[in-house]
Amino acid sequence: MKTEDAKVLRDKLALWFVANGRTLPWRSKPDPYAVLVSEFMLQQTQVVSVIPFFKRWMERFPDLKTLADAPESEVLLLWQGLGYYSRARNLQRAAQMVLSRFEGRIPNNPIDLRALPGVGAYTAGAIACFGYDRPAPAVDANIARVLARLSNQQAQVDTAEGARLLWELAEVLLPEGSGGRQHTSALMELGALVCLPKNPKCLLCPIQRECRATEPETLPRKSPRRSTVALEENAAWITSGKDVLLEQQMGRRSRGLWKFPTFFNKASPLPLFETVYPFTHHKVTLRVYEASAPEVLPTNQRWFALSSVLDEVALPAGHRRALVALIGADAGTLSQEIKPTEDGI
User: Vertex 333, ends 82 and 244: CA angle to 5°?
Assistant: First the structure.
């Protein structure tokens, strides 16, 4: 694309964005820390779902130091419902690294930002762009869709070649000097509001004349998705008086989360509770059975008061749903859980 054509496109996008861009809490005050938090939360999660979590997070952890010094258990509890808990751990580790390595100032260039845990090419570009108004390329799912259709790209966007073409076009379209915040926000907003995955609103698109797509709904092209794998999980409901027994997970993905202990008695009656929940490309059927307490508790198990457990620990979505049902809590608690996007939970 020629320089003058890129400028025409940017100008059209800017006018459209000023008139149509949504007011989002991390946009109204584009502080680098707020941008960092929002970008971690927005990974694999829709904007409308993130907003209430972002507001609660910023009230409890208003700055890097507060987050860096907080117990991990509290960080996970506040993240509960967003899924992909490794994002929360990486966000806290990133805050700690900024304080120790970058003198408490979030870097303003993508190269340094890539050194932070959990920060990839897109997140680095987004923080530089939205937090510091730098002309840094940032290609998320919305922007990838806009760029693929704009250029009528036939290469699959989730391959090395397809991604390279998108990032090159994103670079070409950038303004010089400053202005990256508005430009990239406009591209992203166009993908969210107009250039939709299905039934795109092409007649409302401000850059319709520049778009080369002949069959926009077929773009972007992607590799075939992995098939869903069905899994079964049997868990034990163990109570003693007004307490319930939970087990802390130790694996890399779920470290720090609590769940019901594993139930091993397969010759049991009907479960007390059953639910199905997604986990990456898996569909897990969770069944909870009544069981007796072990004679000796493993080191990763402990009792929690039924009256306060929901406010004390973070649990995977399926286990939290079961716990809410089994203790008879207000069903409104479930509204904090996030339904899966097309990329995950």
Answer: 95
C-alpha 252/C-alpha 267 separation (Å) is 31
Q: Which of 35, 13, 14, 33 is nearest to 24 (CA)?
A: 35
Catalytic residue status for 39: yes
Catalytically annotated residue among 4, 39, 72, 103? 39
Task: Count Cβ neighbours within 10 Å for each residue of 217-240 and write b for 16 or more, e otherwise.
Answer: eebbeeeeeeeeeeeebbbbbbbe
Q: Which CATH number fits domain 3-218: 1.10.340.30, 1.20.210.10, 2.30.29.220, 3.30.1300.10?
A: 1.10.340.30
Q: Which residues of the chain have pLDDT under 50?
A: 329-345
Contact 338, 82 (CB under 8 A): yes
The predicted model scores a pTM of: 0.88
Kindly provide the residue ranges of all beta strands, DSSP E only, lying in 102-228, ordered along the sequence: none
The answer to whether 140 and 128 have CB atoms below 8 angstroms apart is no
Tens of pLDDT, residues 71-95: 999 999 999 999 889 999 999 999 9
pLDDT tens for residues 21-36? 999 999 988 899 999 9
Identify the CATH class of 229-336. alpha beta
pLDDT tens figures, 221-275: 999 988 999 999 999 999 999 999 999 998 777 889 999 999 987 666 789 999 9
